[in-house]
Amino acid sequence: MRAEDSIKDVRLGKIEQMRAEGVSPYPNRFRRNATAEALQERFRDVDSDGLERVEERFALAGRIMSMRNFGKSCFLHVLDETGQLQLYLRKNIVGEEAYDRFKRWSDVGDWVGAEGRLFRTRTGELTLQVERLEILSKALRPLPEKFHGLRDIELRYRKRYQDLIVNPSVRATFRMRAEIIRRIRGFFDGRGFLEVETPMMHPIAGGAAARPFKTYHNALDQPLYLRIAPELYLKRLLVGGFARVYELNKNFRNEGLSTRHNPEFTMIEFYEAYARYEDFMSLTEELLCGLLDELCGTRSITYQGVGLDFTPPWKRLSVEQALVDYGGFSQGEIEEPAAVRSSCERCGIERVEGMSHGELLVALFEETVEEKLIQPTFVTQYPVEVSPLARSMEGRSDRVDRFELFVAGREVANGFSELNDPEEQRRRLLAQVEKRRQGDDTAQQMDEDFVEALEFGMPPAAGEGIGIDRLVMLFTDSASIRDVILFPQMRPEKGIAHRE
Question: pTM for the complete prediction?
Answer without folding.
Answer: 0.92
